[in-house]
Each structure stands twice: as structure tokens, then as C-alpha cells.
TrEMBL record:
This is NAD(P)-binding Rossmann-fold superfamily protein. It comes from Sesamum alatum. The lineage of its organism: Eukaryota, Viridiplantae, Streptophyta, Embryophyta, Tracheophyta. It comes from the Eukaryota. GO terms for molecular function: isomerase activity. InterPro entries: NAD(P)-bd_dom_sf. Keywords: Isomerase, NAD. PANTHER family: EPIMERASE-RELATED. Belongs to the NAD(P)-dependent epimerase/dehydratase family.
Length: 360
């Protein structure tokens, strides 16, 4: 039996953490509450299990010459040195650009290529660290700063704000790579909704007023950029994922090693599996929607206490969690995305965290 990792942290960081390790062996929960605390269990998994063989790219009826110009100073740190490359390829009607191909982006790529055989998926990164991995996944990598003469019909931006000093500027640059057809999608956070009393919240709930929180200010500024460009917003709840191998690793979080955490147990968490977040994002892209805001969650909010009770009862983990000792701190919100589901005709593969645990 493997030990499992669940991290409860800021939703705005859900992609960044997935890109920093070459081998991610965990189940992660990343929730839109303020980053006052975290819960974590862990195991290791072989990232090769996440890879799939590259399928042959179908020949397109149309072909366009793409000229690429890269400023080497942004890619390699060498100033005043420019690399120029010119290659012949096709930007097809179903081709997709993923800005920030971490865990979520890679799942989007996997599903997209299955549903649209012959399409190409491109992944824009800040460094070349994971380019070999992307190529093995059938994703054509390119560095930030690469200039192409032709734009993409589909673009999804799922890079985190943590590694971008000018996040709105980065997103604005990405919108310029969209040709206005298909759809542009920015994955945001449900933290933007102004509710912190464990109350109910849906797509129409007002957002946090500008000036109250630097974190939500940044996200709302980016959302404004996207909507002005005609793109769509997907506000995601806490993301989680799991991979198993035979290797066992002891829990890594100090609080869980001690059997308790000094945070309040009644804080409400909202969850969505990475796979469901990817399928929801693709549903929005495929419908070629413009200027819309959607909410991604499993519609089954749980308190921290309920999450840990499910973990204990599941019998999947090597250690038991005794309880919470905290009595103060922020509360959460109870998300409901029935309007998103009704409009898009979308349902999650994992309707609740409890049902997900049953599959392990």
C-alpha cells in the first residue's frame, strides 16, 4: 500500500508546483483559501506512467510557413545574442497552444490529442528544463519569447502567477498569440469570489473588491485582460490528483507526522480532480465561446474535518490523523457550478472526493 499526498494550498499555485519537479508522485489538493495552512501526505510515482506514445500527425490540406525568432537573452541569459529559426509547418484549425504545460496543461494536451486526432499541441515554458518530457508526451515545446508569424485558434493559459513578475502582461502577451477563432481560456481561481463565511457561492456571486487582497487583485486584473481580448475565464476550486506505485514514502508534513494540525476543522474546502478540470477546460474551448466566466468544482464542498475523516475511513493510508486543534482562522465557501454544467452539458468523472477515494 502506498502512502498518499494531499496538499491544501493556494489555488493560484496549482500549476507551478507541478512544473518544478521532474517526477511528481503525489495526490494534491490545492484550495482557494488563504495559504494559512496545509495538509499533506505523499507517495512517489513514476512520471512515465503519465506519458503516452506520440501518435503520427495527420497531413493537413493547408500548410503555412512559420518563421520563429527567439531572443536568446530571454532563453539562455546571454544578452545581445539572437537565434533565428525558420521551419515549415502548419497551424491547423484544431491546433492548441498551452501556456504553462504543468499537470493540468499536460492533461489538457492528452485529452485534446485523443479527441482531435491530427491536431498539434504546443507548450510554452519559461525554461527548457522539461522540454524532453513534453516531447515524449507529444507536446511541441517552445520558450517564452518565441515569436511566430501565425497565431493559434485555441489557447489555454494555465501558468501560475508565482513565477511571473508581470502576470497581467504575460497573459496579455498570450492573448496576442490567439487568432480570435476557436477560444482563449484562462484558468483562474474561485478565490476571487467574495465569500469567506462558509456561505453558498455560485457563478453569479460578486468578486472580492479591488484593493482588499493583492492576490485576488492580481487575478481580477488578469481576468479583465482576458475578457477584453474576448477570452473566457475558468475559476477553479482546489485541484487534486493521484498516482500510485509500490514504493512507499512516509508522510512529509510535520502536522500529520504529529497526528494533528493547529487549524480550524470547520473551514470549507471545494475540490475538483485535475482530470475533471482538464475535461471542463476542453469543453469550453471546443464550444468556441468568447467573453464568458465559468466555475469548476465537484459541487460537493467538505470541511477539513470531513476530508480527514474520509481519508481515515478509506483505509488507503499508512497513518491515521487524530484531529485539529485550531479554533480561529478564515472560513471558506460552498461552491455550486450548476449553471456551468447546464450550459456546457458537462459532468465530472469524480463527482465527489469520497467517490474518488473509492477508486484508489
Amino acid at each position: 500500500m502506498g502512502t498518499t499526498k494531499f496538499c491544501i494550498a493556494s489555488c493560484g499555485e496549482f500549476v507551478g508546483s507541478s512544473q518544478k519537479q521532474k517526477r511528481l508522485n503525489s495526490a494534491c489538493l490545492s484550495c482557494p483559501s488563504s495559504a494559512y495552512s496545509s495538509l499533506s501526505f505523499s507517495w512517489r510515482f513514476d512520471s512515465a506512467a503519465f506519458r503516452q506514445s506520440r501518435s503520427a500527425v495527420a497531413i493537413r490540406a493547408t500548410s503555412t510557413r512559420i518563421s520563429v525568432r527567439v531572443n536568446a537573452s530571454s532563453a539562455t541569459g546571454v544578452p545581445n545574442d539572437e537565434l533565428e529559426a525558420s521551419s515549415t509547418g502548419a497551424i491547423g484549425a484544431s491546433d492548441l497552444l498551452i501556456v504553462g504545460p504543468g499537470v493540468l496543461g499536460r492533461m489538457v494536451a492528452e485529452i485534446w490529442r485523443k479527441e482531435r486526432p491530427g491536431s498539434r499541441v504546443y507548450g510554452q515554458t519559461l525554461t527548457t528544463d522539461h522540454h524532453d518530457e513534453l516531447i515524449k508526451l507529444g507536446i511541441s515545446p517552445c520558450l517564452k519569447g518565441t515569436q511566430v508569424t501565425h497565431k493559434f485558434p485555441y489557447v489555454i493559459f494555465c501558468a501560475p502567477p508565482s513565477r511571473n513578475s508581470d502576470y497581467p502582461g504575460e497573459v496579455r502577451e498570450a492573448t496576442l498569440k490567439w487568432n480570435g477563432e476557436g477560444s482563449f481560456l484562462f484558468t483562474s481561481s474561485s478565490a476571487t469570489y467574495d465569500c469567506s463565511d462558509n456561505g453558498y457561492c455560485d457563478e453569479d456571486t460578486p468578486v472580492v473588491p479591488v484593493g482588499r487582497s493583492p492576490r485576488t487583485d492580481k487575478l481580477l486584473n488578469v481576468e479583465k485582460v482576458v475578457l477584453e481580448a474576448g477570452g473566457c475565464i475558468l475559476r477553479l476550486a482546489g485541484l487534486y490528483i493521484s498516482f500510485f506505485t509500490k514504493q512507499i514514502e512516509v508522510p512529509i508534513h510535520t502536522g500529520l507526522k504529529q497526528g494533528s494540525l493547529d487549524i480550524r476543522p470547520d473551514h470549507i474546502l471545494n475540490l475538483i480532480h485535475y482530470e475533471d478540470a482538464a475535461s471542463l477546460a476542453i469543453t469550453i474551448l471546443k464550444k468556441k465561446l468568447h467573453g464568458r466566466i465559468f466555475l469548476g468544482c465537484d459541487d460537493n464542498p467538505l470541511s477539513r474535518q470531513e476530508v480527514m475523516e474520509l481519508v481515515n475511513k478509506s483505509g488507503k493510508y499508512n497513518q491515521k490523523f487524530d484531529g485539529f486543534t485550531g479554533t480561529t482562522g478564515p472560513l471558506g465557501k460552498k461552491l455550486n457550478n450548476s449553471k456551468t454544467r447546464a450550459e456546457l452539458g458537462w459532468e465530472p468523472k469524480y463527482p465527489s472526493f469520497a467517490q474518488f477515494l473509492e477508486t484508489l
